[in-house]
Amino acid sequence: MVTVQTVSETELVVSAQHGDRNAFSELVRLHARGVFNVVYRMCGDTLVAEDAAQETFLRAWQNLSSYHPQTSLRNWLYRIAFNAGMDMLRKEKRILPTSIEDLPLTDDRPSPESLASQKERAALVKKAVLSLPDASRAVLVLKEYEGMSYHEIADALDIPIGTVMSRLNYARKLLKEKLEPKLFVQLEAEHV
Amino acid sequence: MSNHVTEWLNAYFDGELKNGRLHQVEKHLAECEACRMELESLRGLSELLQEAPTPDFPSPERFAAQVNLLLPHKRTPTPKPTLFDLGWWMIPVSILAVWVFVSTAMLLSNVVSIANNYGLLDNATGAWISGPSETAEVTATLGQFGVLSGDSLQWAERTESATRNVFPQVVLKVAVALMYLAWFAVWWARHTRQAPGRLIEG
User: Fold this and answer.
1) Angle A143-A144-A150 (CA atoms, 0-180°, nearest 5)?
2) What ipTM is given for this predicted complex?
3) Is pTM beyond 0.80 here?
4) How many angstroms separate the CA atoms of B142 and B149, rounded?
5) For an engineered disulfide with A159, which of A99, A163, A180, B49 has Cβ 3.0 to 4.6 Å away?
6) Residue of A nearest to B201 (CA)
7) pLDDT of B123-178, one tens digit each?
């Protein structure tokens, strides 16, 4: 049995690797919110995100023996989470916008006055993020919502740092191109 | 303003630049209005992204309890190494062992040859160890019949010596290196295929 307060994450991992379900549950408790946030930002759907988060931890339990405690558990979990999220989306056949052009941000959108609503703006931002290519979205989510460094992102996604930079630049460029005309102007107007 | 630092602005904004590159970007930003505006737009985008809220998440304790109920009672055990796995790992070990053995044998042979040249071994042992090879006999015979003489005979003897001593070593080491690299390539391919996480490609 594991005493939560006195046990480090590494000790929890080692115990879980030896089959201690309580130790694993404690690890789940520690990382549940982070994993859920990441998969939600990738999927954009609360129910899918919950399923994907559960699937993430089930896969982690199954593959725990291949995890090396010297490396970051969070990064390892996030890698599994991204894959679980993508698999879940395919399974659920939830269709994300395939390109940023699919976003309903053209002239038939609500007027700037109604865009002042933070809720609507948040919805537009969410759609814009979801319309990004998976690879770029993954990097953007880890940077903007998880505050991870380039090095940590590279580790979590198993890609070179140069690729992290290029995908992040690309994601931000795409987002700015679509959101800038409507939302940045609105933001500036609010700040005046 | 030429030489914009656009490609480094994201990294600058994220606090990922250091030393020379950081100073370069800071210096450029102090002079370039366009890049300052670009940096501001990055800041604006980041603020905008934070406006998309994360929905409520069930309490971590409850979620952990749910996951615990779903966990299989017995985790899939790590498979014990099979005979194939052991044999698989024996390949590089064998290659290295052969390489060590042959290198040691050649080293000893060279040591004995040098010792013999300096007369440190008795005649019988020396003759047995460093008896002329077939190519050396051919070279000597050609010299006797006047086909080779003077510089060309010396050159032929040196070439023959190099061919006999150096060439096999080079061939052996290249062969061992190639075999090892081939094994490593196959190992890497298998290892990548077996990894639980896979790359996300867009």
Assistant:
1) 15
2) 0.78
3) no
4) 9
5) A163
6) A135
7) 655 555 555 555 566 666 666 666 666 677 677 777 776 677 677 778 888 888 88
Distance (Å, whole) CA A174 – CA A181: 12
DSSP string, B35-96: HHHHHHHHHHHHHHHTTSPPPP---HHHHHHHHHHHS-SS--PPPPP-HHHHHHHHHHHHHH
Contact (Cβ atoms closer than 8 angstroms) between residue A51 and residue A88: yes
Q: By the CB < 8 Å criterion, does B66 face chain A?
A: yes
Question: Tell me, what amino acid is at A150?
Answer: Y
Provide φ and ψ at A58, rounded to 5°: -65, -45
Please write the tens of the pLDDT for every residue from B16-39.
999 889 999 999 999 999 999 999
Measuring CA to CA, which residue among A61, A74, A58 is closest to residue A20? A61
How near does any CA of chain B get to the CA of A169, in Å? 6
Q: Which two tokens stand for residue A144?
A: 């903007």
For residue B33, give both structure tokens. 């209005």
Cα–Cα distance between B45 and B18 in angstroms, integer? Answer: 23
